[in-house]
Amino acid sequence: MYHNLKMAGSSLLLICFMFSCSVNTEKHEITTPVLDLKAVGPLFEGSNTATATWEFTLEDLFPNLEENIKIEKAKVKSIQIQTREGMDFPKIGKMVIEMKSKYTDMTKIGLLDDNIQPNKKYTFQVADEQEDLQTAISDERITFVGDFDMLEDEYYEDVIFDLQVTLEIETRN
């Protein structure tokens, strides 16, 4: 009996210790403003690249949190592009979206396996594995890179997509 009481007391003490050391985190869903994902012409058949940069401060993203904002986890929830309405547009095949910040490697975050048509909105398949996103958010500047296949021989104008990325970010104060 004494042994069972001693074990129960030890277990209760261990549980109390675990809860006192746990970290409180909070999840936030953040959507970028509409970014200009731009490929500068002339463009030629095959692989071409468009880029967009998003600059922000953690204080602007999380105005209700205190000073020392720590990013625990981050992941991309959705990626959407839309072709500009009324803009002349070349024939474009699939697109891969990657992201890069100052202290991270290029990370693939999404794939669109469709031919892109003018005046349409597209949602990407989000990558299952997403590396170093919490570091990228902490860097406060992210460059999105869209690699796409142009299906025409040549196109001498710029190509601009509207890009919006939604992230789930877990913070700790």
From TrEMBL:
Segment forming the signal sequence: 1-25
Origin: domain of life: Bacteria
Record carries keyword Signal: yes
Keywords: Signal
Protein name, entry field: Lipid/polyisoprenoid-binding YceI-like domain-containing protein
Lineage: Bacteria, Pseudomonadati, Bacteroidota, Flavobacteriia, Flavobacteriales
